[in-house]
Amino acid sequence: MSRPTVTIYGADGSATKDSAPLPNVFKAPIRPDIVQSVHTGMAKNKRQPYAVSEKAGHQTSAESWGTGRAVARIPRVSGGGTHRAGQAAFGNQCRSGRMFAPTKVWRKWHQKINLGQKRFATASAIAASSSAALLMARGHRVSTVPEVPLVVSSTAFSGAAVKKTSAAINLLKAVGAGQDLEKVRLSKKIRAGKGKLRGRRHTQRRGPLVIYEPEKDGKEIVTATRNIPGVETCPVYALNLLQLAPGGHLGRFIVWTSSAFNALDSIYGSTTQPAE
């Protein structure tokens, strides 16, 4: 970015007289390869262990007929009077048999992520959020946004001013995020495949990410925005790469509060000053 400062916008979308110096973290190198690698590891570490039942495929009485019958020696269900009698059982090649190498919950699920790379990826994702080209390449509608990074004055959130969902929607529309909200609303589709049956029925695009400073901005902003499709919130002290670069793709549209924006230098430091 060529400008050393960033304009701060009010709740009505107009530019205030205040400006903020650009935090040094926005000068971090943009490395899609590192971001993709770290994102893959973090996404894997959110998995829930799964396994088939230990009894599956073995809940029947079956014994091999032995040799001399001109049939395979696989165990066969005993008895008679039903189609099941005489059918092969237990083997992974059998109908109603167990699978090969039944899955276990004690599989090694966790993937270690280098801490330095994890911090680098977060800084890189923050830096990428200041590039309008990367935001548009990711699919965000930012043609009406006056400036990126977009910083909104914390006074707009003081005194629980943004407590209702309607107030949050009006604020986002005022600062130019209305087109992105509309894109999300129109993007809701029914998922293709079996995920429909497994609690993942709908797919939907991501909208703006609102980053706030919990002590100064209050937490009412979380309840105000949580019911807006596509909008997510995150405290500035707990930034998450899964939100900053969904899918491992750089260029998330971020709405910063001025308090959160000013806290970035103390969190990430600079080339001359360490983080606090």
Can you describe what's shown?
This protein is elongated. The protein has two domains: 201 residues, Ribosomal protein L4/L1 (Ribosomal Protein L4, Chain: A), CATH 3.40.1370.10; 61 residues, no CATH class. The mean pLDDT is 94. It has 276 residues and is an alpha/beta fold. Keywords: Ribonucleoprotein, Ribosomal protein. It comes from Hortaea werneckii (Black yeast).
SSE diagram, text form:
Blueprint: E1 5-9, E2 15-21, H1 32-44, E3 62-63, E4 76-77, H2 115-128, H3 132-138, E5 150-152, H4 165-174, H5 178-186, E6 189-190, E7 202-203, E8 209-212, H6 214-217, H7 220-225, E9 232-235, H8 241-244, E10 254-257, H9 258-262, H10 264-268
Parallel strand pairs: 1-5, 5-10, 8-9, 8-10
Antiparallel strand pairs: 1-2, 3-4, 6-7
Helix pairs in contact: 1-2
Family: Belongs to the universal ribosomal protein uL4 family.
GO biological process, one term: translation
Organism: Hortaea werneckii (Black yeast)
Distance between the amino and carboxyl termini: 25 Å
Give the full name of the CATH homologous superfamily of the largest domain: Ribosomal protein L4/L1
The CATH architecture designation of the largest domain is 3-Layer(aba) Sandwich
Principal-axis shape: elongated
Task: Report the portion of residues in β strands.
Answer: 5-15%
* Order of the strands making up the biggest sheet: 2-1-5-10-8-9
- Report on the biggest sheet: 6 strands, mixed
Which class do the helix and strand fractions yield?
alpha/beta
Total of DSSP H or I helical runs spanning 4+ residues: 10
